[in-house]
Design goal:
six-stranded mixed beta sheet; alpha/beta; two-stranded antiparallel sheet; single chain; globular; 9 helices; 2 domains; 308 residues
């Protein structure tokens, strides 16, 4: 039987406050219907609730995100080169698959448009979630702050932001499985930063992420892209059995070296959402520490100011 995790292990739950910003412009020549409905994409509010529920479950009740404000940003945000789509130019590009390049969004303009620096300094939110459309120009996640670091994207350094915060960017064409993928890459970035000073032989993150292709006979939980038996990126549906210590992490911090043969039915047979939930459920979420690193890895992932 697995050891208690999260709130069952005595950890006090955290309730991060989210500022949710939705870029969903109206299509004027179609009676003002919003872009996501016009093209048959997902509803941002439903996606957000699924994501909140999945992370609460995966963290064993430790992390309960709260949306404290939803901003209806019914416009196309400006690109780094000053370009801005109209409804017609966006739809023309989408249908022809010839979108504007360079694609990158202007993040300094986004900070200014929503007064994010001042609002964060006033303590109004803990992180920001942007919901946008394909080719909005967003990274999947990004950290802001005077000492921000890589979070699956180059840091957005800002001298006025004393406490780091993360902006998550989600694409409403995709489902919640892709949102969990964005979060998983955030985990990878922050945990690699956490362990940067730990000797390789004691680096538990390096051990957690082993998979058969790179560590034959030593697979553990793998990474976001690679399950224990994957041979290529996103290869979550491989039926080949490999020996893995993935269940050992459910007993953390007592890593006994328990191993068994596993294949893709363990994590959903190729389903992205199920694989990512399986992987996140194995992230340590218990009291204690080792080498100055908390045994609750969720702590620093949710609040990068807790990084050592």
């Amino acid at each position: 039987m697995a050891r208690p995790r999260g709130v069952q292990a005595g950890l006090a739950p955290v309730r991060p406050r989210v500022l949710m910003i939705v870029h969903d412009p109206p299509i004027d020549h179609a009676g003002g219907v919003r872009l996501h409905r016009y093209l048959g994409w997902h509803d941002a509010d439903l996606l957000a609730q699924q994501y909140i529920d999945d992370l609460a479950h995966a963290s064993a009740g430790y992390c309960h995100y709260r949306i404290i404000e939803r901003v209806d940003a019914a416009w196309f945000p400006v690109k780094l080169d000053g370009f801005r789509y109209t409804a017609r130019s966006y739809l023309d590009g989408w249908r022809s698959r010839r979108m504007h390049q360079p694609d990158r969004i202007d993040y300094q303009a986004q900070l200014a448009a929503f007064d994010l620096v001042a609002r964060h300094r006033r303590g109004e939110f803990d992180e920001v979630w942007f919901f946008s459309f394909p080719y909005a120009g967003d990274y999947e996640s990004l950290m802001v702050g005077r000492d921000a670091f890589w979070c699956n994207a180059p840091p957005l350094m800002h001298p006025a932001v004393e406490r780091r915060f993360v902006m998550m960017m989600f694409n409403v064409e995709r489902d919640v499985g892709c949102m969990l993928e964005n979060f998983g890459h955030r985990v990878e970035s922050i945990m690699a930063h956490q362990m940067r000073h730990v000797a390789a032989e004691r680096d538990l993150w390096r051990r957690f992420t082993r998979y058969e292709l790179v560590a034959p006979g030593q697979a553990q939980c793998g990474t976001v892209h690679f399950a224990p038996n994957s041979r290529t990126d996103y290869d979550w549906g491989r039926a080949d059995y490999v020996w893995s210590g993935c269940d050992d992490w459910l007993e953390f911090p007592e890593l006994r070296g328990t191993r068994r043969e596993v294949e893709c039915s363990e994590w959903g047979g190729g389903d992205m959402r199920q694989h990512h939930r399986w992987w996140l459920e194995r992230l340590p979420c218990v009291p204690g520490e080792r080498d100055g690193i908390s045994h609750n890895w969720w702590e620093a992932v949710i609040d990068p100011n807790r990084c050592v």
